[in-house]
Amino acid sequence: MTDIEFKQKLENYQTRINECLSTILGKPLEKSESATEAAYYSLECGGKRIRPLLVLEFAYICGVPEEKVWDYLPIACTTELIHTYSLIHDDLPCMDNDDFRRGKLSCHKQYGEDIALLAGDALNTKAFEIISNEAINNVVSFETACRLINILSSAAGFKGMVGGQVIDLQSEGRQIDIDTLTLLQSGKTGAMITAACLMGCAIAGEYNSRIYADAAHYSALLGRTFQIVDDILDVTGDFESLGKPIGSDAQQGKSTFVSLLGLEGAKEQAENLTNQSLAMLENFKNNEFIKMLTQKLLNRSY
User: Fold this and answer.
1) Cα(86)–Cα(278) distance, rounded to whole angstroms?
2) What is the separation of C-alpha 57 from the centre of its chain, rounded to a whole number of angstroms?
């Protein structure tokens, strides 16, 4: 696959995902439009759309025909709903207390803490409504829908994203070791990346198989790399590129892969993990795009 072909496929993914997200919430309860507006404000303010993209791409490399992959676009977008809800809540004063997200005012700064909280809650629950509706409408079987809900809810909960955030909050202002940091980030960041890959496998009918295990291994490596690069960019990036203040982790007294490994050590770790990820992808057919994406995520600047 050439760079031009990669870019075209990536842009096609992102365009169609954004189009789906722009209508996915449906019509709100009368006189409650402010929460829906707040949810769309955060949902449509940018982002790489990596999670829904991974759902669709793993469905494809696990055997779903390329033209049929788009049937599962709403299901793929549920990962972005969960991710966006987590960002809205993370930015709240009781959590990370961030004023900006992706170059715009955080949701609570634009709409108030109460509406932002409810918008996040609504995005969380909407994700599972969408998956169950796709079973009711015969897009997927009820068994597959149950598996998808199980994967997504587990990744978002106590053993995943929520658990990682708890460790993160408890670790502010004190030094933690590399094992604790890895555990923290495997929940806070990595769990949803793994969920996206495994949801693609489940859509393709691969569940509790060798392929499923390989996807879990790949995604764990990718999730850790993704966070290390985030930590690197928090030191080397700028507000214009990242859309949020630089150096916020250090200001909040958080341990990061850069603070524990040093900048060069973090870069070396990210490269090693990427190489391991690429090796895992050799177990999948039609892997040209996902391999290039994996490499480009290592070298991203935002």
Assistant:
1) 28
2) 14
Tell me which of 17-31, 166-180, 237-251 is least confident. 237-251
The Cβ of residue 84 has, within 10 Å, a number of other Cβ atoms equal to: 27
pLDDT score of 238: 66
Asked if residue 86 is part of any domain, the answer here is yes
Query: Beta partners for 100?
Result: 105
Confidence of residue 261 (pLDDT cuts 50, 70, 90): very high
3-state secondary structure 185-240: HHHHHHHHHHHHHHHHHHHCCCCCCHHHHHHHHHHHHHHHHHHHHHHHHHHHCCHH
- The answer to whether position 250 is within a domain reads yes
Is the pTM value of this prediction over 0.90?
yes
Evaluate if residue 244 carries a pLDDT over 60.
no
* Residue 31 predicted with pLDDT over 70: yes
Q: Domain total for the chain?
A: 1
List the structure tokens of 180: 């604790």
CATH number at residue 101: 1.10.600.10
pLDDT digits (tens, 9 = 90+) for 10-23: 999 999 999 999 99
- Ranges of beta strands (E only) in the chain are 100-101, 104-105
In-domain check, residue 6 = no
HSE, CB side, 13 Å, CA atoms: give it for residue 50. Answer: 20
Would you say 188 and 240 are in contact if contact means Cβ atoms under 8 Å apart? no
